[in-house]
Amino acid sequence: MPTERRRIIFADDEVVDAALSYCRATGIPVPDAEIDGQSIATDTDCSLTLTFAVASPDQRDEVEMGSDTVLNALVAFCRMQSIPLPKSAAKRLEAHAGAVSMVFDMKRERSSVNGTLAA
Predict the structure, then answer these.
(1) Which pLDDT tens digit goes with each residue over 53-84?
(2) Is 40 within a domain?
(3) For every residue of the chain, which 3-state class applies, written as one string?
(4) Is residue 58 part of a domain?
(5) What is the pLDDT of residues 92-102, one digit of tens each?
(6) How many other C-beta atoms lie within 10 A of the C-beta of residue 18?
(7) Which of 11, 35, 75, 93 places its Cα 20 to 30 Å from the Cα of 101?
């Protein structure tokens, strides 16, 4: 059975934008401050840590997102940007050339050769 694979590669700023939008949409608390830095674990699971420049040391200054949350954020980002995504495909994150990529694997059903050939 053949498998088709597609990959969408995201720039770091797109991953951050997707993460912030997802946090706001789902109620994940985010500090009301500028982003001071980000760390995307492209060497392991593509998790994300956002660091914020907070005014007080008592405020939370980091937001950590696991790879499943980052994947959901990127799916929502693609929908908002009208980037078509295959519905029935298995989706996962992978590092690709130092960036985050969303990979889709689609298994194609084997069709009958006899029914498609002209006699």
Answers:
(1) 887 777 778 999 999 999 999 999 999 999 99
(2) yes
(3) CCEEEEEEEECHHHHHHHHHHHHHHHCCCCCCCCEEEEEECCCCCCCEEEEECCCCCCCCCEEEECHHHHHHHHHHHHHHCCCCCCCCCEEEEEEECCEEEEEEEEECCCCCCCCCCCC
(4) yes
(5) 999 988 899 99
(6) 25
(7) 35
